[in-house]
Each structure stands twice: as structure tokens, then as C-alpha cells.
Amino acid sequence: MDSAPRESLSLDLADAKATETLGGRIAEALRGRSGHWFVTLQGGLGAGKTTLVRGILRGLGHRGRVPSPTYTLIEPYRAADRPVFHVDLYRLADPEELEYLGFRELFRGDAIVLVEWPERAGGDLPAPDLQISLDITGAGRAATIRAVSERARGLLVDLGGIAG
Q1: I need a surface site. Which of 4, 62, 84, 109 has the fewest CB within 10 A?
Q2: Helix crossing, 150-163 with 16-31: angle to 10°?
Q3: DSSP, residue by residue, 98-150
Q4: Which pLDDT score, from 0 to 100, does residue 108 have?
Q5: What are the pLDDT digits (tens) for 6-20?
Q6: pLDDT exceeds cutoff 50 at 5
Q7: What is the three-class DSSP state of 9?
Q8: In what order do the strands lie in the sheet with 130-137?
Q9: Measuring CA to CA, which residue among 45, 12, 2 is closest to residue 145?
């Protein structure tokens, strides 16, 4: 396998199970990496963002339910001995609401922060490590995973090796 850093990885996902499996593979790639990780998830309603997050959380060892945080906005978890925050900004009325939610507090320590609908923040989010886009393609999905940070490029190489 080519060991040069990759900028993005594109995958076809046949169904929800394949989407959740991809989430588990992302968790596997994240598991050995310490520090804070920020991942954004984009795609229309029903594209599989929460399904992907469920796969990530299960891959990190979480065994409970993984509801969509559409109404609570932030769902905290503890998985792989670190905090994981699942954030859904779909119902965010104004980006200023992020301050009231204590959103900046999530970006401390070795937390993994997974944000659905990041575009609702109006550009008030820090740059992510990974950007994941999901698109509906007939009965399946197309996923594009883009490394934004330098350290995420290594993660993408690892993910490319296990995603095929």
C-alpha cells in the first residue's frame, strides 16, 4: 500500500449496516490516537450521519443506545476511556446559541467531538480534523472522508488500509 498521506477517501456504502461498519473502522483508526479529535458530518436528512456516529461509538466500546441529539443538541458519552460528544446542530436557530450551550468546553483534553450539521454554526466552529460527507445514492450511500488537519492524514491512510 502507498504510504503517502492522503487528502480524502471515497467509499460506496450499500446500506445502514455498511455505514455503521465504516463508523467502527473510523473508531479503530481513532482508538490509538490520543489528544482531541474534531469530526464534522455533513449530508441531508436521512443520509446516515447518526448511523455513522453509532458505529463510531460502538467501535469505541459504547454498548448503550445512541439516539439522535436533534432535540438535546449534545449527547455525552464515555467510550475507550475518553469523553465523546455527539452534537447535532440541525435545530440551532442562531450560531450565538453555541456559547449558551458551553460548546467551547467540549474542545478540551482528549475528547472526540462528532458534529452533525456543522454548517448551522455559521463558521463559528474550529477547523475539524476530519470532514465526513454522506450522500444518498439510490438504496445506498456515498461517503467522502477528508483529512483537514495534518495528523488526520495519517488516520486517513490507516482507514484506507482497513476500509477496502
Answers
A1: 4
A2: 130
A3: HHHTTGGGGSSTT-EEEEE-GGGGTT-SPPPSEEEEEEEETTEEEEEEEE-SH
A4: 84
A5: 588 999 999 999 999
A6: no
A7: strand
A8: 8-13, 140-147, 130-137, 37-42, 112-116, 82-88, 74-79
A9: 12
Q: Which residue, 45, 4, 34, 10, is CA-closest to 132?
A: 10
Locus of grid cell 436521512:
46
Residue-wise pLDDT for 82-135, tens only, equals 999 999 999 888 888 888 888 888 888 899 999 999 998 888 788 999 999 999
First and final CA of the chain: distance in angstroms? 12
What torsion do the CA atoms of 124, 96, 77, 113 make, to the nearest 10 degrees?
0
d(C-alpha 94, C-alpha 15), whole Å? 34
Of the candidates 30, 26, 27, the residue with the CA atom closest to the CA atom of residue 11: 26
| 27 torsion bin: left (phi>0), alpha (psi -120 to 50), beta (else) | alpha
Among 89, 59, 94, 84, CA closest to 72 = 89
Q: What three-state secondary structure class fits 88? A: strand
DSSP β-bridge partners for residue 114: 39, 86
